[in-house]
């Protein structure tokens, strides 16, 4: 399947209303209360894959991106006038794409910086799409585990791999933090990407370790779910 990327870059000194709308990503700018917003700048950089033969996937991804940007815009325009210049930044990028006969799978990385914050925040949005049903899938829907206790097995494997990373000093945390973030719940393993014969699980910031530890990953064989 031939794929390409859709890219949108916005840079503005406020006040401007920046609205992302429609699949074509038209951008509208209107003057809004320049005096109140004096000293605040806004930058957005959005880049994600588009699939030539999967228009329904494209529409769903576009909707996800649009909602994320609209939420950021809402926070941006509710900001009070700062005592000193501040910048707001919103970036979306994507991981490499995995594709087989049944699925298309990748991760959207959303970075947001709100003016005046100590640091930005990064979240991941999993996109795993069924070519058959034309829907986005959860981990359970994508893998259809035969094991009834698959979450317990995944929790055990996650703790094993993360503690090994701590021992190798490639990841900094402690056992209690890891255990809390890998309890056998679907929410704790919601961020994933399919790979050949395996699945990559990514943990959110603060989920299994401090901010400085980033978002650690584990790779689990699909056989674990059988």
How many β-strands, per DSSP?
Answer: 11
Q: What is the CATH level 1 assignment of the largest domain? A: Alpha Beta
CATH-derived topology of the largest domain: Heat Shock Protein 90
From the spread of the alpha carbons, the general shape counts as flat
Helical residue percent band: 10-25%
List keywords for this structure.
alpha+beta, 4 helices, 33% strand, six-stranded mixed β-sheet, Actin, Chain A, domain 4, single chain, Heat Shock Protein 90, 226 residues, 11 strands, three-stranded antiparallel β-sheet
Task: Summarize the structure in words.
It is a single chain. This protein has 226 residues and is α+β, with helices and mostly antiparallel strands. It is built from 4 helices and 11 strands, in the order E-E-E-E-H-E-E-E-E-H-H-H-E-E-E. The radius of gyration is 20 Å and the shape is flat. The protein starts with a strand and ends in a 5-residue tail after the last strand.
Summary, kept brief:
This is DUF3298 and DUF4163 domain-containing protein. This protein is of the alpha+beta class.
Secondary-structure topology with pairs:
Blueprint: E1 3-13, E2 19-21, E3 26-28, E4 40-51, H1 55-77, E5 86-94, E6 98-99, E7 103-113, E8 121-130, H2 139-143, H3 150-167, H4 175-181, E9 192-195, E10 198-202, E11 217-221
Parallel strand pairs: 4-5
Antiparallel strand pairs: 1-4, 2-3, 5-7, 6-7, 7-8, 9-10, 10-11
